[in-house]
Amino acid sequence: MNRIAASIFGASLYLYPASFRDEYGREMRRLLAESMRNAGGGGAVLLWLQAMAGVLLEAPKEHAWLLLHDLRYASRTLRHAKWFTLTALFTLALGIGANTAIFSVVQTLLLRQLPYGDPDRIVMVWVKNPEQGFDHDVTSYPRLEDWRAQSRTIEAFAGYNGALRVLTGGEDPEQVRSAMVTANFFQVMGARPALGSGFEPGDDDFGRPHKAILSHRLWARRFGADPGVLGRTITMDGQLFTVIGVMPSRFRYPTRDTDVWEPLAIDPELRTRRGAFWLTTVARLGPGVRVAQAQQEMDAISRRLASQYVRDRGLGVDLVTLKDELTATTRPALFVLTAAVAFVLLIACANVAGMLMARASDRQREIALRTALGAGRGRVIRQLLTEGMLLFILGGTLGIALAGAGVRAIVRLAPEALTQISDVEVDWTVALYAIGLAAITGLVFGVAPAIQAARRDQAAAIREASPRASGQRGTAWFRTGLLAAQVALAFVLLTGAALLLRSFSEMQAVDLGFDPRGVVAARISLPSAKYENATKEVAFYEALSERLSAVPDVESAAGISSFLLDRLPNSAGFQIEGRTQDVRTPLTYDSVTPGFFRTLRIPLLRGRFFTDADGNTSQRVTIINQTTAKKYWPHEDPLGKHIRFGAGADNKDPWMTIVGVVGDTKRAGLDVPVFTESYQPIRQAASGSLAILVRGSTDAAAGIGPALRAAVREIDPQQPVSSMAPLESMLDETVAGRRLNTLLVTIFAVAALLLAAVGVYGLLAYTIAQQHREIGIRIALGASPMAILHAVGGRAIAAACVGGVVGVVLSVAVSRAIAGLLFGIAPLDALSYAAAACVLAAVAATAAALPLRRALSVDPAVSLRAE
Amino acid sequence: MRASQEDQPRPEDFLPLHRDTFQILVSLADRDRHGYSILLDVSERTSGALRFSPSSLYASIKRLLHQGLIEELAERPDPDQDDERRRYYRLTRLGRKVAEVEARRLEQLLVDARATGLLGRRA
User: Fold this and answer.
1) Does B47 touch chain A (CB under 8 A)?
2) Would you call B59 and A62 a contact, using CB atoms and an 8 Å cutoff?
3) How many Cβ atoms sit within 10 Å of the Cβ of residue A83?
4) How many Å apart are CA A289 and CA A416, to the nearest integer?
5) I want to staple A764 with a disulfide (CB 3.0 to 4.6 A). Which of A60, A704, A851, B99 is the partner?
6) Separation CA A387–CA A451 (nearest Å)
7) Best residue in B53, B60, B75 for a mutation probing chain A (most A CBs within 10 Å)
8) Using the beta-carbon criterion (under 8 Å), do A54 and B54 form an inter-chain contact?
């Protein structure tokens, strides 16, 4: 027979699993040789070809058969070692799940591109005034025009402003969030409607026919996703708008819940008012322009404008990339979470490695026995790998399920401000990466020793009743090191969680300055087309308050133009009568109904509250907060003093008399310093949009909502009420981000703690099982319990101590890094450190107690007989 | 595998047999054989219609061994061939039973086919 043909066939046998080849390879070769010899000539060639085809056909089947067999065997052994399997799966699922969830969020929020064209070129253009301490202000239309005219590095500027509008027609009137944008807005954002077209130049001129582009959400909800909506007219605030487009669902700018975009119809007066700050500006950099370049140019333009206009004095411009803008508040927290979750993964890997290692050395005898009984080494190794892989695949699957649940929970708990959070999904690359990392760790530390065992002298291994031979010492040391690392990492996470929890409780303890309990808040925006003057607006609110006060459950009701203050609430510079210098630090202004302070239980410090007598014909009055009083009248009584908004000698604004000083409130946020604030009576400063606050008499909050809606409907059936919620839950939303961070870090810390406990338990239980005989001998020889504990637990205790010390050092570094997320406590808060140390010590001691008790109860007679 | 070895599989559990499997069992019915001998026997009985490749033969042998239908004997030389030592296979009690039951099943099929006139009546 042709030698070459034979050796090719021989080589092809390597396609088979080694075990099959070892068993039948020789026979198969001989069989082919004989057949070919008997056939001779062309028949032989045909036989050879047939044999080669057979190998290609049968070898994969053998592999599959073996895999199935190994999987069955592995699942049997894993089921048999129930505790090992459950713990390992729990550990893996936790490590992989937590990491996948958090990295998926990070990936979407920080790393993924925004769903806009060339998103890196989109920048926010903020006006800043370092002297007055603001850095994120909106701008006026004339200034926007100047920027457009003078900038070379910036391709286009777009301005926008938000409004709440009432959408009528169809079933119920509905309040929608509209973004009024300059005609080039979508070009700047690099976005196009999914359906229909965008705005055209000139659409934002005053008096043009109204056009509207719908959000995907509104289109689906209100119009049943009907493409025929294009060209239809809709009614908002009593005005007709032609629908010209529908945006894709991923376009959510300026806010997550923008429903409609309409061209900004800038009225001629606003076009020229340089001092009216109302436009938020977003711009697109020219191709290849860096932000720093554009910033430099904008600085020069600002200087030029400052020398040209009084209104521009002291003003500068800050360019912030859109991505940074959107993630500015979450980025530090996400970094902390990423680090926390990476720690959890490390601990989980250390745990799995330790567990697999222990299991491998436990199985040395089994492996040696199987090898001795004729199982090839390759076969045993293959079996072990399959078992390891099965474990990681199961753990990974559980982990991904956990990540899915985690991501959903995070999306639900995340603060509203994160516009892209709804896009977060489990990231498969991340999941595979986490599983891969765990698998590699497991294979290197867990299966490798087992392979080593398979290579060892079988006779020796079997002879050893108590497998404490070479390699065991190294393993023990390695596991001790792993334990120390786990303790250190767990300590860092615990201190982090303690610091955040303490911050959170400090924040909860902050005096709000008002009493939100039992108050329901809602927003009502009266369309200006219908309520075109102050008298009508005031009449509406008075009718409403009259009806509400007739409801038995309502204790009191009030309104304020904006209740929860934004980063930059309605505010303006002002003048104090008799002082030459204008005050440029903005003073907030809010219209309130007379019952406002009583409804919110804001204390009156001096003077009086507003009354029904403060009407539009009487003397103009205002109430200021304590911070304002202290700042501008530190040694005087502010009552009776006059102030007015605006600046300059030609200021036409009317003077207002300060008639009261009220307590400061934390309505801008618990962690935001109190603004200088002022309030005006609604009859003197009408507002089309009002936050209605209704205090229930007892815990009748549930009945208040319907009562409020009913009252509004009675007055104006077309008028919707929006964002109704208990005031307490609205305040909660302002700390949602912080609460989420705290919650997640705490969960991770608890996970780390549990994993470290598993580590401690595992190491001790293993050591004791290994030293069973030795302990028996010691007890037989009369060793004291202390001596026994020292002998078996000494190493674990040393590891825990070393881990603890390393943990403290790491924690100090980490606490400094998260200082920005803390509130009201120092990064080196002793209480947090002590709490972390106590919890860790207690849990470690509990985890150690079980196996140690077992060690002390070893019966020497039994343990020695067992040999 | 339909039943594990522990709880005594019934011969019926293996039916119907794969053509290759059945032929191997038949070929071992009258005497113990080594691989090449099986191959020749089957090829001869089927007039060359079924000719095993080394892969398919040993895949089947492995499966039959695993199922406990055949067993492997100690290696010994084949008196008809050279004096190289070879692996011999023998039907187990279960294997013989399985082959028998399968043969009866096939026989019944044949009877049925004849009864309906499909194959024409035996002369």
Assistant:
1) no
2) yes
3) 9
4) 32
5) A851
6) 13
7) B53
8) yes
Burial (0-12, 13-18, 19+ Cβ within 10 Å), A459: exposed
Task: Provide the token pair at A693.
Answer: 């606050």
Structure tokens, A837: 């140390």
Where in chain A are the domains?
3-70, 119-327, 483-511+733-867, 531-717
Q: Which residues of chain A have pLDDT under 70?
A: 1, 111, 131-134, 171, 329, 361, 415-421, 445-447, 449-476, 565-568, 698-702, 863-867
With residues binned 3-state (H G I as helix, E B as strand, rest as coil), the percentages for chain A, rounded to 5, are 55, 15, 30
* Euclidean distance between CA atoms A594 and A611, whole angstroms: 5
Question: Domain range for residue B109?
Answer: 14-115
Does residue B7 register a pLDDT over 70?
Answer: no
Task: Please judge whether A51 and B54 are an interchain contact, meaning their C-beta atoms are less than 8 angstroms apart.
Answer: yes
What CATH number has the domain bearing residue B100? Answer: 1.10.10.10
| Residue A130 to residue A354: CA distance in whole angstroms | 57
Count Cβ atoms within 10 A of the Cβ of residue A145 and give its class: 0-12 exposed, 13-18 middle, 19 or more buried: middle
d(CA A24, CA B34) in angstroms, rounded, equals: 12
Which H helix or E strand runs over B55?
helix B54-67
Say if residues A689 and A559 touch (Cβ distance below 8 Å).
no
Whether the ω angle into residue B77 lies within 30 degrees of 0, i.e. cis, is no
Predicted TM-score (pTM) of the model is 0.66
Q: Token digits for A273?
A: 């008012």
In A605-700, where does DSSP find H-type helix? Answer: 626-632
DSSP character string of B102-123: HHHHHHHHHHHHHHTTSS----
Predicted pLDDT at B1: 44
Q: Is A867 on the interface with B (CB under 8 A)?
A: no
Does the bond joining A638 to the residue before it have cis omega, within 30 degrees of 0? no
In angstroms, rounded to a whole number, what is the distance separating the alpha carbons of residues A593 and A542?
A: 9
Is the CB of B39 inside 8 Å of chain A's CB atoms? yes
Distance from CA of B58 to the nearest CA of A (A): 7
> Are A410 and A105 a contacting pair, CB within 8 Å?
yes
A849 close to A841: Cβ distance less than 8 angstroms: no
**Hey, is the C-beta of B107 within 8 angstroms of any chain A C-beta?**
no
Above 90 in pLDDT, residue B10?
Answer: no
At residue A248, the 3 state secondary structure works out as coil
Chain B's closest residue to A32, CA to CA, is B54
Contacts of A30 in chain B (CB under 8 A): 36, 84
Question: What ipTM was estimated for this complex?
Answer: 0.83
Bridge-based pairing of strands A122-129 and A316-321 is antiparallel
Residue B55 lies in a domain: yes
Nearest-by-Cβ selection for A28 from B51, B54, B84 = B54
Total structural domains within chain B: 1
Tell me the nearest-neighbour CA distance from B28 into chain A, angstroms: 17
Task: Pull the structure tokens for residue B66.
Answer: 């695993």
Exposure string over A596-605, b if 16+ CB within 10 A, otherwise e: bbebbbbeee
For an interface test with B, give the residue of A14, A24, A29 to mutate (most B CBs within 10 A).
Answer: A24
Number of C-alpha atoms within 13 angstroms, CB side, residue B123? Answer: 0
* B81 domain residue, yes or no: yes
Of A163, A337, A388, give the one whose Cα is nearest residue A259.
Answer: A163
The answer to whether residue B123 is domain-embedded is no
Of the candidates B51, B53, B58, which has its C-beta nearest A27's C-beta?
A: B58
Is B84 touching A (CB cutoff 8 A)?
A: yes
Would you say how long chain B is, in residues? 123
- What pLDDT, on a 0 to 100 scale, did the predictor assign at position A568? 61
**C-alpha A716: how far from chain center:** 41
Query: Do residues A323 and A169 lie in contact, with contact meaning Cβ atoms separated by under 8 Å?
Result: no
Residue B106 lies in a domain: yes
Question: Within 13 A of A614's CA, how many CA atoms are on the CB side?
Answer: 26
